[in-house]
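Design job #97: recover the sequence.
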């Protein structure tokens, strides 16, 4: 697909609409720079996430399916959250495999199901942008920043979806092309505890601090996340002695563009990254 001037529908998901508004803002800022236009799906709802899928599979399917039926026809749907991407993809697969379920939801929502709707993860979009040469000219902008790339576990597909792309290695390649240095470390896809952070915080805290200690031991100056939920957990469940700045991937992409990063994004961080940003010459704008 040709990206410059293209139009995509956009499913932000709950995290990017609430606790990770800076992730949403930096993603949109980055795409606007390249004239990739996104339109948020009207009246979207929670994808069901891990919690619903754990206790009520029927409700979980209904929540994800409704978003698929809300999507505009013949328009790829961009999704940034790995968890949302997984849930909506699973719903699409389940409806395509069951004519009975497909018919039931078509009756419920009063419109035909888009069997071939394209669900586009932000990482796949970024690969397309890179292949079309849109990222040229940004070399060296991250000035040797030492990064621990953290994908989390949601990009690791369940066996039923093992043919789906997981995009491991994309952050390392992209950060390297922008002048960053990705460290080698063993926790890039270790679970952060996800929603156990609410129901069993002691479990999430143990997982998170193991991850943070690993990043520090690797020599990283910061962690870069692919998932907004992971970002939140790393910040809120981290003990003081293990604190290291955590960035959303989209924030560093926008900072690499220069004049495309807003100070307001970083005020929302619970671990202040400003000293590191100043050290590396990553200066955001006062407003955007």
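Job complete. Output follows.
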């Amino acid at each position: 697909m040709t990206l410059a001037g293209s139009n995509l529908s956009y499913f932000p998901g709950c995290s990017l609409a609430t606790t990770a508004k800076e992730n949403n803002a930096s993603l949109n800022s980055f795409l606007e720079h390249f004239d990739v236009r996104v339109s948020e799906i009207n009246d979207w709802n929670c994808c069901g996430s891990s919690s619903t899928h754990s206790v009520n599979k029927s409700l979980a399917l209904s929540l994800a399916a409704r978003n698929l039926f809300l999507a505009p026809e013949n328009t790829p749907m961009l999704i940034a959250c790995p968890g949302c991407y997984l849930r909506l993809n699973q719903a699409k697969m389940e409806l395509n495999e069951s004519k009975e379920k497909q018919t039931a939801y078509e009756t419920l929502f009063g419109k035909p199901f888009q069997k071939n709707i394209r669900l586009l993860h932000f990482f796949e979009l970024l690969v397309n942008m890179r292949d079309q040469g849109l990222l040229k000219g940004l070399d060296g902008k991250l000035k040797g920043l030492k990064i621990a790339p953290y994908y989390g576990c949601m990009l690791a597909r369940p066996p039923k979806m093992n043919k789906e792309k997981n995009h491991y290695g994309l952050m390392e390649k992209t950060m390297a092309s922008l002048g960053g240095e990705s460290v080698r470390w063993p926790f890039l896809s270790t679970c952060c505890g996800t929603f156990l952070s609410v129901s069993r915080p002691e479990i999430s805290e143990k997982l998170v601090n193991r991850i943070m200690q690993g990043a520090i031991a690797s020599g990283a100056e910061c962690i870069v996340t692919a998932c907004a939920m992971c970002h939140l957990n790393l910040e809120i469940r981290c003990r003081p002695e293990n604190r290291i700045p955590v960035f959303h991937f989209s924030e560093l992409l926008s900072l690499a563009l220069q004049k495309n990063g807003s100070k307001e994004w970083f005020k929302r961080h619970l671990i202040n990254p400003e000293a590191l940003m100043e050290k590396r010459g990553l200066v955001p704008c006062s407003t955007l």
